[in-house]
Amino acid sequence: MTSLVFASNNPYKIEEIRVILGPDFHLSGLESLHINEDIPEPYQTLEENALAKARYVYEKCNFPCFADDTGLEVKALHGEPGVLSARYAGPDKNSEANMQKLLHQMRNISDRRARFRTVIAYIDKDGEFLFEGRANGHIGQHACGEAGFGYDPIFIPDGYDLTFAQMDAALKNTISHRQAAVTKLTAFLKHKFST
Ligand code: IMP
C-alpha cells in the first residue's frame, strides 16, 4: 500500500480524495502529522500557493504529499476574486459576505462568465508536479440553493440551469473543478505506483 499525505485539515476533502484513490493508497491529512496551523498562502497565483503548501509539508514529513488551492475567476473582473476567493470580503473568510461583494461588483456587468479552477501540487523524491481542474460557468443574478459551500449559490455551471448549491453533492462532484484535478492526480499516482 502506498502512503500519501494531503496538506489539508478539511475532513470532507480528505474523504472525497480517499474514495477516488481507492484501497491501494493510504491517505493521511495534516492532523495525523500534528500540523494544526493554517499553512500560509501568501502568493498571487494558485500554483505558487499550492506548491508552497506542499513544500512546507514535504519538508516536515519527507513523504509523498500534495496540496490544493482553488479560486473563482470572473472573466469581466480580470480573474477576480481568484487567489483571494476565501478572503474576498475580509480576513474572516465569510462566504455570504464574499458572495454579496461579488454580486455588487458585477451589478452593471452583463458578461457573467466565470470558472472555478483548482490546482494540486504533488511532491515526492522525483520532483514537483502540478494538476489542474476547471469548471466553466457563469455568475447568477442572486444566490440560489442551500447545498455546498463558498460561492456555490451564485455559480451556474455550463450545461445546467442550476447553481452548484441547487445540486446534490454527487452531481456537483461529477462536474467540479476539484474532481477534475483529483482525477488527474489519481491517474498519475496509479500509473506511478503500479507494479
Ligand atoms: P480552497 O483553496 O479549497 O480553500 O478554496 C478557496 C475558496 O474558494 C473557498 O474558501 C471558497 O470560497 C472557494 N471555493 C473553493 N471551492 C469551491 C466550491 O467547490 N464551491 C464554491 N466555492 C468554492
Topology:
Blueprint: E1 2-6, H1 11-21, E2 25-28, H2 46-61, E3 65-74, E4 81-82, H3 95-105, E5 113-124, E6 127-139, E7 155-157, H4 169-175, H5 177-193
Parallel strand pairs: 1-2, 1-3
Antiparallel strand pairs: 3-4, 3-5, 5-6, 6-7
The structure holds inosinic acid.
Residues 69-72, 85-86, 93, 95, 98, 116, 148-152, 164, 176 line the site of inosinic acid.
Question: Quick one: how many beta strands?
Answer: 7
Q: Estimate the global geometry from the Cα principal axes.
A: globular
Biggest sheet architecture: 7 strands, mixed
What's the number of structural domains? 1
- Tell me roughly what share of residues is in helical segments: 25-40%
CA-based gyration radius = 17 Å
Strand and helix order: EHEHEEHEEEHH
CATH class: Alpha Beta
Q: How many distinct helices?
A: 5
Ligands bound here? Answer: inosinic acid
**First-last Cα distance:** 11 Å
Low-confidence stretches: none
Q: Which topology does CATH recognise?
A: Maf protein
The computed structural class is: alpha/beta
Bin the strand percentage: 25-35%
- Give the rounded overall mean pLDDT: 94
